[in-house]
Design a protein that fits this description.
The protein is mainly alpha-helical. The chain is built from 16 helices and no strands. The longest helix has 21 residues.
Length: 275
Amino acid sequence: MPVDAQLRSLNIDIPAQPESLVKLSLLLADDEVNIQALGGLIESDMALASAVLKAVNSSLYGLAGRVQSVQQAITFLGTREVSAVTFEMGLKAVFPPAPELEPVWERAGVRGLLMGRIGTAIDVDPWAAHSAGLFEECGKAVLYRHAAVRYRPMLKAAKDDEELLFLEHQEFGVSHDALGAALCESWGLAPAAVHSVRYHVIVNTTRELPMQVQRRAICAISALANALMADPDTVDDVARAVAPQADMDVVMVLRGTRRVQEQIEAAVARAPAAP
């Protein structure tokens, strides 16, 4: 999908989707995903497979024993979560390693997992939700890749993402939410995920879902996941604010969100202590 002409005029490069993720997307497009083919595709890229196994063996996923292969990971976690982790690792790999971006990728992994599982719990497309969570802050990586020396001080100076958008517009004429949405669109993510990435700062700041978003449930899930990550005590208030705007039942949304929160907390609690 072509990048918006206005963004092209700014001469900020939107990285192409890696070939392995293109092939993965084609596999996932089938109604019945070939699990053997999926595992084989991931394992054909040794660096990618190693990164996926490292991720799924983290405390976040709460597996009882150590997973030794991608096929084993698929057996325990299912195709969606393993595919999402693969997208996470593939996304990270197209950008230069940098200490300033590590918090972005750490939040992406947690947010994606939360959003995907909340989506499952409340019957909203979990793949779109998970991918929206993974890509939510990827526009920051795009700007860092474009001009690290100029962008690094902004990441340090901004007290929150709302202030960061202002600084980005001043310096580059575009902000990371728009660039992240452009990357999502060029990589073929679902429109609901693209919109969630585009408007996540507005939603998290105001708890208002923009009128131009037709499928609002993913935006609502983004707000819930960010509340869980930033201040779990606000989850009830966030759910009461965003669920009605997405035509969702507040009680069902809260029940599903709290269940996911309990799953993640239990997984982390079961993890062995670091040596």
